[in-house]
Write a structure and sequence with these properties.
The complex is a heterodimer of chains A (203) and B (200). Chain A has 203 residues and is α+β, with helices and mostly antiparallel strands. Chain A is built from four helices and seven strands, in the order E-E-E-E-E-E-H-E-H-H-H. Chain A is flat and about 105 Å long. The chains are: A alpha+beta (203), B alpha+beta (200). The interface between A and B is large, with 70 and 74 residues.
Chain lengths: 203, 200
């Protein structure tokens, strides 16, 4: 942020005076747009400078795993390595080292640091249903249905949305996919039966 | 590392823009903003302890939409009144559709834009485009933020804002010297415990 002050979201004029924390809408002193501005104590909190690790003075002192010249202040809550103040990252009340955070993010084990998820269940369900609804899409279902079943089974345990927990889309994708495939098999069998059992035309 | 599980509660409002659907969810200690394309989701977390300000600004968008819908409704009603029987049924249906949207837009109330500010960003909360919803969400968040940060009495706001407006005192170069960045770059990135170079 360039300015520590709160500004009007329309004219960008820094707001002062009695526009803050009012229960009703107040006009912006500069542009007159109606605003409700709620400020909190964090606005006045000073941002502390990043901590540096203290240098090891005596050889008997424990040192940081990553910076052997720095004094260790605590162990990592996940791997137990000794960390200096610089390497200590506090995440949700736990003190972790940068390597454990990276592993946690990569493996999706730290939900608080996740910023993206692919919804394979929605993808599978779309592949199972949408082509059947299209005019010429039905002929593609011979390809999309197995793909939908594969995606639903392959990503059965992959975390879906961070706020949605059910497996309903997986189940629906499998049901629709299997039904469509069964329809295709029935069609092929029927066509084969019709061709082989059709009576020859006599002249 | 154990999996952290958090329960989220849905906040009012849904925002649509550029094929992305925006929603807000209330977590234990943060507000979660989700932008979903239907096949992927992007998350942003705003911890209650970090929220500096919420700015709601009323906009004229709702009135403009009402004006446009009214104009279309009047035109289609005129068409219904002037066309012959049979054809006018179509125009009455069109008028009904426009009037329905007009009523819906009026019932949803005035429009607004909502910005949430932290120390490092100002985020436009796209799901809060209606004034009453934005104020409802603000009312739900206020006690949670107060629990995380403490209360700010109205009497102390002017003095603290004046203090904040003053230019910051320049700190000495020695106090702001950062640690060499290559010290961290040299750190290993795997969790496998190599031979410890220190006395642990």
């Amino acid at each position: 942020m360039n300015t520590p002050l709160v500004s009007c979201s329309n004219c960008m004029t820094p707001l002062m005076g009695d526009v803050f924390n009012r229960s009703d809408l107040t006009p912006c002193p500069a542009c007159g747009r109606l605003l409700q501005v709620e400020i909190f104590p964090a606005l006045f909190r000073r941002i502390e400078a990043g901590r540096e690790g203290e240098a090891v003075i005596e050889e008997t002192e424990s040192s940081c795993f990553y910076h052997p010249q720095k004094k260790a202040v605590l162990p990592c809550d996940a791997c137990g390595r000794f960390l200096c103040a610089l390497c200590d990252c506090e995440v949700s009340g736990r003190h972790l080292c940068p390597a454990c955070i990276e592993i946690g993010v990569t493996k999706g084990k730290m939900q608080n640091l996740e910023n993206h998820r692919t919804l394979y269940d929605s993808l599978a369900l779309t592949l199972a249903i949408v082509p059947t609804l299209l005019v010429f899409g039905a002929c593609f279902t011979i390809f999309t249905s197995p793909l939908a079943i594969y995606l639903a089974i392959r990503h059965w345990n992959t975390p879906t949305s961070i706020v949605r927990r059910t497996k309903a889309r997986h189940v629906l994708a499998i049901v629709f996919g299997v039904t469509t495939l069964a329809g295709w098999i029935a069609y092929v069998v029927f066509m084969r039966y019709t061709v082989t059992h059709s009576t020859p035309v006599r002249r | 590392m154990p999996t952290e599980t958090k329960k989220y509660r849905r906040m009012p409002g849904t925002g649509m823009g550029y094929a992305l659907r925006s929603t807000l969810w209330l977590g234990e200690d943060h507000l979660l903003s989700i932008r979903s394309s239907g096949y992927s989701e992007d998350y942003k977390r705003f911890y209650f302890g970090d929220i500096q300000a919420i700015v709601i600004r009323q906009t004229q968008t709702g009135r403009i939409i009402n004006g446009v819908l009214s104009a279309f409704a009047v035109v289609s009603l005129m068409a219904a009144l002037t066309t012959s029987a049979g054809v006018n049924i179509f125009w009455y249906i069109v008028t009904g559709v426009f009037v329905s949207f007009l009523l819906l837009n009026t019932l949803l109330g005035p429009t607004c834009v909502t910005h949430l500010r932290t120390a490092v960003q100002s985020e436009d909360l796209q799901s809060l485009r209606r004034l009453h919803r934005a104020r409802k969400v603000l009312a739900r968040m206020r006690p949670l933020i107060a629990r995380a940060q403490g209360q700010l009495s109205p009497a102390e706001i002017p003095a603290r804002m004046t203090e904040l407006a003053k230019p910051p005192v320049q700190s000495t170069p020695a106090a702001t010297t950062a640690t060499a960045p290559d010290a961290h770059a040299a750190a290993p990135t795997t969790a496998t415990q190599p031979s410890a170079p220190q006395s642990q």
